[in-house]
Amino acid sequence: METVKIGLVSVSDRAFNGIYEDLGIPALKDWLTSALKNPFLCVERLIPDEQALIEKVLIDLVDNQKCDLILTTGGTGPFPRDVTPDATLNIADRVIPGFGEQMRQVSLYFVPTAILSRQEGVIRKNSLILNLPGRPKAIAETLSGVKDADGKTIVHGIFSAVPLCIDAIGGPYIETHHNISETFRPKNF
């Protein structure tokens, strides 16, 4: 199996300034460890809510670090300093609206304020960039989806579509543990 290079970016003024411990990157790493069959290498960044810096970091992770996938956490709300989606859109080559729509759909299952989220999914060169929520529980829900007590999927998580998207943009072939995230690929793909 190919190694997947993944950029993990936690955007938080307070975590960056040491007011509290960043929980976003550890939550992302835990989820990826449980979900991916592929070996993966993480390039981690903890940065403040500064749009120009977020743009610079995302560009570096794509253009120089050559990450196949970049997951950001935090800064997706309606507050003035929540600028992660703005930065992401500014550096994007193409927008994939379905990722943001599905993230909100998953979150709406749990909280009505999910409609305030401005999460995005974009492509820059050969990298997929996804803006995830900031709380660890919400990160896992967004990636895995919602299942009933018997483990049947009620709302698909976004990671079900990530491997096919990465295939389409020339990245490595990603396989997942289906009990965490069932990857969908057309039968003839």
TrEMBL record:
Pathway: Cofactor biosynthesis; molybdopterin biosynthesis. Its EC number is 2.7.7.75. It comes from the Bacteria. Residues 7-153 form the MoaB/Mog domain. InterPro entries: MoaB/Mog-like_dom_sf, MoaB/Mog_dom, MoCF_biosynth_CS, MPT_Adenylyltrnsfr/MoaC-Rel. Pfam families: MoCF_biosynth. Belongs to the MoaB/Mog family. This is Molybdopterin adenylyltransferase. It comes from Acinetobacter rongchengensis.
